[in-house]
Amino acid sequence: MALQTLQSSWVTFRKILSHFPEELSLAFVYGSGVYRQAGPSSDQKNAMLDFVFTVDDPVAWHSKNLKKNWSHYSFLKVLGPKIITSIQNNYGAGVYYNSLIMCNGRLIKYGVISTNVLIEDLLNWNNLYIAGRLQKPVKIISVNEDVTLRSALDRNLKSAVTAAFLMLPESFSEEDLFIEIAGLSYSGDFRMVVGEDKTKVLNIVKPNIAHFRELYGSILQENPQVVYKSQQGWLE
């Protein structure tokens, strides 16, 4: 039986996705609006849904999206899709976000990233922003048959496991491992020093052990560096 997310359903995600241009190499939704978290956000049944759209041609995609969803963009929309794409690719983590959008009755934000930029981040952790998101449970709504992208998604998870091993003792629990993995993308995040909940990583992992196990179980079973006692939730 498929693991359950919050009340937000697959149908809801697909209906929201239908409001955007179809040319997506990958689309996923993440965060407390999808997977239950402990702490202050645990009761946010109507929490904002966070989407990421990966596109092969961001200029063409933004051009179509501006025609469909002009109101989603800031004043940058008057500068056109090429300027938006330039800002997306050359500033920050390579992602352009539109936020606080009402879509299909839900509050959402969505980030747009070039497929090439995402693959580079997955393989080399250039920013570890979207790659970091994908090291934690997310709900993938759409993914194409791009072999390079699929291979990079898998490599990102295996790299996260290897990095976590280096920070753990000779034996440890599944929870210990998943906390290390979930914390990778926050390690250099200034928000974890000022402004962010210090227990954020723990709040993400504890209610979602089963989702982390689903994401990493086969990688751990096949990894020659570790003996994975899945029934006991223990690794050596």
From TrEMBL:
Its EC number is 2.7.7.41. It is a peripheral membrane protein. Its main location: mitochondrion. Its cofactor is Mg(2+). The keyword Zinc-finger does not apply. One of its GO terms (cellular component) is mitochondrial inner membrane. Keywords: Lipid biosynthesis, Lipid metabolism, Magnesium, Membrane, Mitochondrion, Mitochondrion inner membrane, Nucleotidyltransferase, Phospholipid biosynthesis, Phospholipid metabolism, Transferase. GO terms for biological process: cardiolipin biosynthetic process; CDP-diacylglycerol biosynthetic process. Catalyzes the conversion of phosphatidic acid (PA) to CDP-diacylglycerol (CDP-DAG), an essential intermediate in the synthesis of phosphatidylglycerol, cardiolipin and phosphatidylinositol. This is Phosphatidate cytidylyltransferase, mitochondrial.
